[in-house]
């Protein structure tokens, strides 16, 4: 269901989508939606440039029965109606009576529906009920079986087939039986009603809004990861094993995220993932996990689509990139550093494996444009995996040497991942000949984060 700036996607009761993991569902849905929104912007606003990355928040609400689901949808529909009626009054008062928002709010607050209908009609000759359905009632998108002509036979007779299509419709009242009975496909998918709904129970409404908070006084790590990036990287011809453009794009998005959210003190990324660390006492979105996860994932996705052209120039986005996200709390600096150590070790292990794998499958052993001495045709992927299975770091380094590659000379960004944080700009004052610190700015660096040096040099990052 779509209303004024909100959307609800209903999954079947027995869905097994992403094993019903709440964080996955809420983050990837909001991320895919954001990606589509940014991509489609030009279609609807051809003259307007998208000047700021839009972001959305999302949450999962479980509805135990069809009645509860109907109550939920009814609550959203009522909300849509109330907000739209209020906003219509607000904009008319401002446009025609030149009232400020504060003055209009004073008039409208605590008024019921009827006085607002009267105000619109008496003052502005607007029959509210004749305003577009889409604004007053919201829209419903649902799959429906429709019969379509697929071709014509030799006699010119149309051949029809049943297809499932997404259709958009409006309904005055989502709780009405007629809405559900005229769309039998909905009940086929969702089940049968046990009883009727008259009024939305207040305790149900409260349950739709309730959410546990992330443990207080703990570091919050939001880790996002690209969905199906294996396919995404192939379709967009990412260089193997590391594509500098793709990594720089991820880093550029992460820097913008760190700049936008004051509470993020550090971010670490590699491949298609990024971890954002929020300070211990952060009160971002009241520490509600759904909001924090969804907004950061959504904002990152927006940036990724908007910045794509900056890094991939002529490569067209063939399908929408999207990310999933999760929140994890860590109570102490030590445990947080253990987490970062785990991610950086993972980065090193994966990078070394992928580099060897790439060398083995590339015919003639050609890596990053450097021709090596080994001119043998490459292995198949299966052979390469088999060859590398169980090999230790030392053996992999030796293998790369045979192909003329000194692993320690490969770019730090590939081997150590990327760290993003606020740093003071250090400049030398030529007049005084001394080192000076200027304003802080967000930087990206490719450093060892397992080592204590970074944390000792930048004690402000993990300040309690
Ligand atoms: N060629 C190339 N591929 C990359 C690069 N960065 C990421 N990838 C691809 O993205 C994948 C990321 O791994 P995963 O996150 O485990 O896999 P995924 O396909 O995204 O699957 P899910 O995260 O489970 O949806 C890698 O396996 C690569 O296939 C890159 O720089 N170059
Ligand atoms: Mg991934
Ligand atoms: Mg990944």
Automatic annotation (TrEMBL):
It catalyses: a 5'-end ribonucleotide-tRNA(His) + GTP + ATP + H2O = a 5'-end phospho-guanosine-ribonucleotide-tRNA(His) + AMP + 2 diphosphate + H(+). Its cofactor is Mg(2+). Residues 8-62, 206-331 form the tRNAHis guanylyltransferase catalytic domain. It comes from the Eukaryota. GO terms for biological process: tRNA modification. The keyword DNA damage does not apply. Keywords: GTP-binding, Magnesium, Metal-binding, Nucleotide-binding, Nucleotidyltransferase, Nucleus, Transferase, tRNA processing. GO terms for cellular component: nucleoplasm. It holds the Pfam family Thg1C. Its EC number is 2.7.7.79. One of its GO terms (molecular function) is magnesium ion binding. Residues 68-157, 335-433 form the Thg1 C-terminal domain. Gene3D superfamilies: 3.30.70.3000. InterPro entries: Thg1_C_dom, tRNAHis_GuaTrfase_cat, tRNAHis_GuaTrfase_Thg1, tRNAHis_GuaTrfase_Thg1_sf. It is found in: Nucleus, Nucleoplasm. Belongs to the tRNA(His) guanylyltransferase family. PANTHER family: TRNA(HIS) GUANYLYLTRANSFERASE-RELATED. Adds a GMP to the 5'-end of tRNA(His) after transcription and RNase P cleavage. This is tRNA(His) guanylyltransferase. It comes from Lithospermum erythrorhizon (Purple gromwell). The lineage of its organism: Eukaryota, Viridiplantae, Streptophyta, Embryophyta, Tracheophyta.
């Amino acid at each position: 269901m779509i209303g004024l700036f909100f959307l609800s996607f209903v999954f079947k009761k027995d869905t097994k989508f992403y094993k019903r993991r709440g964080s996955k569902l809420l983050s990837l849905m909001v991320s895919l939606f954001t990606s589509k929104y940014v991509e489609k912007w030009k279609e609807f606003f051809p003259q307007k440039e998208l000047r700021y990355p839009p972001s959305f928040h999302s949450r999962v609400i479980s509805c135990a029965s069809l009645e509860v689901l109907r109550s939920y949808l009814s609550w959203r529909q009522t909300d849509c109606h109330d907000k739209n009626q209020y906003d219509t009054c607000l904009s008319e008062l401002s446009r025609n009576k030149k009232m400020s928002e504060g003055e209009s709010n004073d008039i409208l607050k605590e008024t019921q529906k009827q006085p607002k209908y009267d105000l619109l009609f008496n003052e502005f000759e607007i029959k509210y009920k004749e305003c577009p359905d889409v604004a007053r009632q919201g829209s419903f998108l649902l799959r429906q079986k429709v019969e379509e002509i697929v071709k014509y036979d030799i006699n010119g007779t149309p051949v029809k087939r049943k297809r499932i299509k997404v259709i958009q419709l409006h309904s005055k009242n989502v709780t009405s039986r007629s809405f559900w009975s005229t769309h039998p496909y909905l009940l086929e998918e969702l089940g049968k009603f046990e009883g009727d709904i008259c009024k939305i129970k207040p305790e149900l409404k409260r349950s739709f809004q309730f959410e546990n908070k992330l443990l207080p006084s703990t570091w919050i790590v939001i880790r996002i990861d690209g969905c199906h990036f294996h396919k995404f990287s192939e379709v967009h011809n990412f260089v193997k094993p590391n594509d500098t453009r793709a990594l720089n794009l991820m880093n550029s998005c992460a820097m913008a995220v760190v700049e936008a959210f004051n509470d993020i003190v550090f971010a670490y990324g590699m491949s298609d993932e990024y971890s954002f660390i929020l300070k211990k006492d952060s009160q971002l979105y009241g520490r509600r996990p759904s909001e924090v996860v969804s907004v950061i994932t959504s904002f990152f996705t927006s940036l990724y689509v908007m910045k794509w052209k900056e890094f991939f120039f002529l490569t067209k986005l063939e399908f929408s990139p999207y990310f999933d996200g999760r929140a994890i709390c860590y109570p102490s600096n030590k445990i947080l550093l253990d987490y970062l150590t785990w991610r950086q070790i993972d980065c090193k292990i994966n990078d070394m494996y992928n580099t060897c794998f790439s060398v083995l499958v590339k015919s003639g052993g050609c890596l990053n444009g450097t021709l090596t001495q080994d001119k043998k045709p490459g292995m198949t992927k299966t052979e390469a995996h088999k060859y590398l299975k169980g090999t230790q770091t030392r053996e992999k380094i030796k293998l790369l040497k045979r192909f003329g590659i000194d692993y320690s000379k490969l770019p730090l960004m590939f081997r150590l991942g990327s760290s993003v944080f606020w740093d003071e700009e250090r400049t030398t004052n030529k007049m005084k000949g001394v080192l000076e610190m200027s304003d802080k700015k967000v930087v990206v660096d490719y450093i060892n984060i397992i080592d204590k040096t970074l944390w000792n040099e930048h004690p402000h990052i993990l300040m309690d």
